[in-house]
From TrEMBL:
Residues 207-378 form the Terpene synthase N-terminal domain. The keyword Heme does not apply. It catalyses: ent-copalyl diphosphate = ent-kaur-16-ene + diphosphate. Its EC number is 4.2.3.19. Its cofactor is Mg(2+). GO terms for molecular function: ent-kaurene synthase activity; magnesium ion binding. Residues 467-579 form the Terpene synthase metal-binding domain. Keywords: Magnesium, Metal-binding. This is ent-kaurene synthase. It comes from Escallonia herrerae. The keyword Metal-binding applies. It comes from the Eukaryota.
Amino acid sequence: MESSLLSIQALVTKIKLETFSPKNDLYSFVSPSAYDTAWLAMVQDPKERGRPLFRGCLDWVMSNQKEEGYWGVASADGLPTIDTLPATLACVVALKTWNASDKGVEKGLAFFHANMKMLVDVNHQQLPRWFVIVFLGMVELARVTGLDLFMQDELKGGISSIFKERQRILETEKLVDKFQYPPILSYLEALPSTYEIDEQAIVTHLSENGSIFNSPSATACAYMATGNQKCMDTWIPSMYPMDGGLIKLRMVDHIQKLGLAEQFHEDIDEILEQFYRNRKKQPWEPRGTNDALAKMYMDSLAFRLLRMHGNNITPGSFCSFLNHEGILDHLEQKCEHFRSLIYNVYRATDVIFAGEYELEEARMFSRKLLEKTMKSRMAYDNFVTLPSFRGVIEQELSLPWIARLDHLDHRMWIEENRVSPLWTGKASFYRLTCLQDENIMRLALENYKFRQLIYRNELEELKRWSKDTGLSDMGFGREKTSYCYFAVAASSCLPHDSLVRMIVAKSAILITVADDFFDMKGALDELQELTEAVQRWDGKGLRGPSNIIFAALVDFVTDIAKEFLHQKGGDITRYLQDIKEQGEGKMNLVLLHLKENPDGNIEDSIGYVKNIFDEKRKELLQHVLMDELRDLPKPCKHLHLSCLKVFQMFYDSSNRFDSNTELLQDIKKAIYDPPEYRILKPIRPQRCSRGVTTQKSSTVHAHFNRTFTTRCSSKSPKTSATKMTAGNCLFHEGLASASF
């Protein structure tokens, strides 16, 4: 056990240094975009023609081609995702532009030809908007650059449907549309030659950092098209491909989901406090509906984390969407594209306080949409794509957070993290590498198994205590030693050396046995004798079960008092004697309400009591989470919340406590069986031997530059607009007229 603890401590130290150090660059945790890097690599140095301006980007392209020939990220099963098609074409064009690697070009085209049918066939019914625009743009760019692309006859139907969808997008959306973010202009590098753009529109929409909507690829195109030096001033946008605050929030959320909050509580405190301060100083002003949805994603995640952390944050921080019909309609119509966002909103409403009617409305709305998304087979999400997301949503809807035990939740997320989520960027997928950091996952596994070791030892000790006191051999009622310990251990994240687990578990066992004795076994005189013995704290004259129960109670109180005396130097024996529960029969609250309302029915009384319980639950949650209520130490308040979650788990939909079998599988997962976590072996994509063209790269690059010069930089004095072509203004032919 000591060696396990030392290993855990060593991993914690390593992770603090590598992940949570303030010296770390947040964007180093974001996987590079092969697509955008390729576009940076295409930019020519204006001072030295024939050389790339960003040599490092070209070097990255040359050294990051996968063995199978593609660039981009793989899916959960190791297969390339659809974003590898445009990314690979962009990288191949970059290599061809500088005549950098014939072998790399050949391997890239071989991958494209061998895998395009598979990827397009599998996804063509649910291709995301960004892919439709970018994929066709890169096909056109590759052909004009002189690369030999061929399309099998069986692909023509799929390609035709993609082309029609692009036409629909370009005809129905404005260049900068408030209902679409990123807007069409942010795909400047991939727009067809038939799409006319006023050069002034490009300059007008350059942001302060010189970018086109924080897109390196579009910004590279804008620079090559206009020569505007402002595009080079800052170059890499500060929010690309995601906000730095969101990266930190996802790190915190990830650490907490894996059950590691205890080890990194200081780091978590610092991150959340900094985020809270920054957001108050610099609120995010969204640009259009989709940007507002991105803000909702982050704000709902932040709301849950900050409220759980004790910050005084109001629901208005993300519930304002309820007052925007456009956003509500957009979510209703395309909810399958926003599952991760809606899921975040739903989770945020878990921590609702009394009187927060906005959160009530947000919960009903998000639940309705989550249930609707379960009928869809859409593979890709506008924010995060997770292979097992459907199962995660199913659990969230079927078993609310308040009825789930933390320890089992941690196990679920460890097992779900076999592959990290894919984040959807403007034109490709990304991974947050910190969400699948090898050391973090090792720590999560070791920490979970270490807790299991402690739990097994404590449960065996508890079973001995139950047997030694006679409580497990009463001959009547429910023997619930394992149930009681499981509920206490799995519901909270108490320190591994905490005595509280054993104290609460013994209390639960005593109460269960006493309750059964009063309900089903004891005669009236026996119950009276036991009650009086407890009141005078003297078991003289007790016999049978009454004597066993009282002796166990005295033993339990004595042990607690001794431990407190040892740790704190005070005697609390008398205090403990005064608070053991007296076994007096009380009527059920539902029956009391029904008795007071004889004209009603049992369903009305149940509904009445549920409403009371719901309000009291919200009040308790507020009392536990809000730091300004300091009448109890925080660990004590969280123990009360754990008790509430245990009762919700036992009685949420049925009486699981009285079942002899229903919790056995959960007990095995919590205490005995280690998590099932493994890295899936990648499945290799297909290969083919299709070659490349023999056109000289120097000719291609000259044509590339000449096209920019003649078509984009020189403006006729008789016209106020310049016809901008896709990406690098090279596309002389549209896909419709291309011969496949």
